[in-house]
Amino acid sequence: MDVARRSTMETAAGKGRRAGPMKVKVVDENDVVVVGAKASDALPLPLYLTNAVFFTLFFSVVYFLLTRWREKIRTSTPLHVVNLSEIVAILAFVASFIYLLGFFGIDFVQSLILRPSNDVWAADDDEEEHERMILKDDARKVPCGAGLDCSIPQIAPIASPKAVAQKVFDKEVVISTPTDFSTQPLSEEDEDVIKAVLSGTIPSYSLESKLGDCKRAAAIRREALQRITGKSLGGLPLEGFDYESILGQCCEMPVGYIQIPVGIAGPLMLDGREFSVPMATTEGCLVASTNRGCKAINLSGGASSVLLRDGMTRAPCVRFNSAKRAAELKFFLEDPNNYDTLATVFNRSSRFGRLQTIKCAIAGKNLYMRFTCSTGDAMGMNMVSKGVQNVLDFLQNDFADMDVIGISGNYCSDKKPAAVNWIEGRGKSVVCEAVIKGDVVRKVLKTNVEALCELNMLKNLTGSAMAGALGGFNAHASNIVSAIYIATGQDPAQNVESSHCITMMEPINDGKDLHVSVTMPSIEVGTVGGGTQLASQSACLNLLGVKGANREAPGANARLLATVVAGSVLAGELSLMSAISAGQLVRSHMKYNRSSKDVSAVASA
């Protein structure tokens, strides 16, 4: 810190030479921070002139040597015979090449290595590549998550407004000292980069490609954000995460990561196999309640599931000059005689994407075409979109007047509650059922069969109908789906349609036992691509035995994951409905879902 606080005059006098174009920025009454000293300041010429000299030298000697060697070839003179001028030219070529490589080459190579792929379809199309990336075969020396530093760092005091004052529009920026927010000191080079980000010289989104270090880029972006906003991110972890793994595919401009606890419900006995179900949630009682449902299912012999459909959808919107013309394309697409041709065009896009059906709907002169295809172990949104684009390009040959409005016309329908998904299905359509013995209902679930069936009819069926529910004929399927999706690296936003569920309960065996089932027509999951390759999420998939792509039967892992989701929803529905029937819901949440901290004391502190 003593070195950093010296004034420019003292430094210049101590060294006996010009100090260079250092900049001094006074942050408060006592501190002076010296910034801006660069290695290029030691050059005898300004940097742009030095670059110009070496550029000129490099191309001049290249031209000279090529001319000389051409003459030698014409006169049959050996190329290794050189005179003094050629030796000087060769030395000048090597020197200029080394300079230019050192100045430009390293950054260029790093940017090539770190640049994200431009092929937006690569995540779904090449499952072998994903398998190589995520299949570590449990080679970690510590369990996933054990290496994370879960301790919450102390939040540094917020810098005074005087120290963090910003004048962005007139380019005058006063920067707070590094110690205002940072938990560790920053190097002078990092300080220069932070200044460049604050002034707009370096865009924040380009830090990874310019620095070649994803973690360092996140740290610098985080520090710049704290100085701009005057707010501390001390409680947001930075260390202990592989930022390289999310570059170009999971998250842009990271400044840290969120910690969500993962609990285990189970074992869940499903189709003769036991599964320990990972659930990432911050809602108290959720894992415990699902675990109780798993216990009731296990004691009654387990649950069974049936996969009804497996197909991801995409529905582009196209427009014609007349409704008649739109209808002609509709009839063409739905004609069985044209299916083979369309399937051939569609299937060219992927080794795993296979066209299943095309269903069309017309609104005036606009046509919505809902393509459905299998997608292997990928969730498959990109895969089906790629195939649809191929078909649209093909249709332009015979329907040149077709105007493509959008690759997605919301008839798919993705991340929105929609009747088409509830009726036709999207992703995996699964039914899961179990017969719960009467004594298990009484001893484990603390209620009775008659009360459960009455509650299900009046709450999940009648009550949901009164509310105008769309696919929401259940108690809390969304809770379980969201928790499993976050734990296993699925798209959390697809919880919307994936949670479509109708829960049915009825007494059997003369009213002694309970038959319970959940029907879920649109579970959208995958075991490759997206967040499934991250270390923590990959570990949770591995726990379920569905990590990566299935080599023997492509798509089997994703289908199995869908049935596990449905089985877990069955357990969660059974337990929550029992708690409501027995009047235990409020008591359990008051006991397990409330913070034990003295909130008033924390607020006053």
UniProtKB/TrEMBL annotation:
The chain crosses the membrane at residues 45-66, 87-106. Its main location: endoplasmic reticulum. It is found in: Endoplasmic reticulum membrane; Plastid membrane. Pfam families: HMG-CoA_red. The keyword Oxidoreductase applies. The keyword Protein biosynthesis does not apply. It catalyses: (R)-mevalonate + 2 NADP(+) + CoA = (3S)-3-hydroxy-3-methylglutaryl-CoA + 2 NADPH + 2 H(+). It is a multi-pass membrane protein. Its EC number is 1.1.1.34. NCBIfam families: HMG_CoA_R_NADP. Belongs to the HMG-CoA reductase family. This is 3-hydroxy-3-methylglutaryl coenzyme A reductase.
